[in-house]
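I wish you would study the pair of lines that follows with an eye to the fold:

===
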Amino acid sequence: MIVLCTGCNGNSAQQADLSKQSNKKAEVQTDGEKTAEDKQSNKETENQSEGEKTKMTAQQEEVFRSYGLSNEEIEKMKKEGLDYKEQSFADTAIMMLNYLEHKYSEKFTVVGGDIPGIFSHEYWITAEALDGEHAGEKFDVYYLGERGYKDGYITLLKQEEACEALKKLIQSKFRDVLIFPSLSGEYGDEIALADTGEEMLKKVEFGYNIIITSSVTSEEKFHEIADSIAKLLEDNGVSSSGGVRYLKGTIDPDLSVEDFNLLLENDSFQWNDYISTVR
């Protein structure tokens, strides 16, 4: 039996046998409607007992190749047939790819993943966009059974718009602070492609880094502004967590995220960090 090695966006790989539990959740939904192909895949998986082997299909082979299995491993699986766990992983991955392609009208491939077992309680894959604005970028997708799907591709597509709305909200009250927000996580039907940045403020989880300089307030009082910012976000229903940093001196108001990260590594800057969190 082939043991698949899981990995997610650069996280350290975890070894996990594909779980027995995949079968009963192999039912697919694409925006509320099952496709004939997914129904057939689910039926075939349900009819396979744990000890039986099934012939590998072209779609399943494509999943295993994009996942990173070697030619030798795939040829062995072709010769011996797929066991219950291998088939379940491939079929569930195919369902999630169908979901993504239907939702975003783009092409994706599988580069990692797992099904329920020791390390997780949900089906998931790490997918990579093959075309579009974010071609080459990776993100996670989860299959939740009757609750549908959630994916991280929506955060890539809506990142700029949502973060700009968060900056606008904070700077409406605190004009002179520098804000570096970020959007992450996986979401399902609660976020629509048509949602504006303002509409997303109450639907997603933000992270942020904020710089307050000595031209704005004193070092002794900067934490009061940090708490006021956290309160502003809480009052507006924004779920977020972040760090506020005080810097003696001035700083370029158009500082990029990349330059900000370099500043954090610069020992010559005198930082005073204050963590403020709203959940």
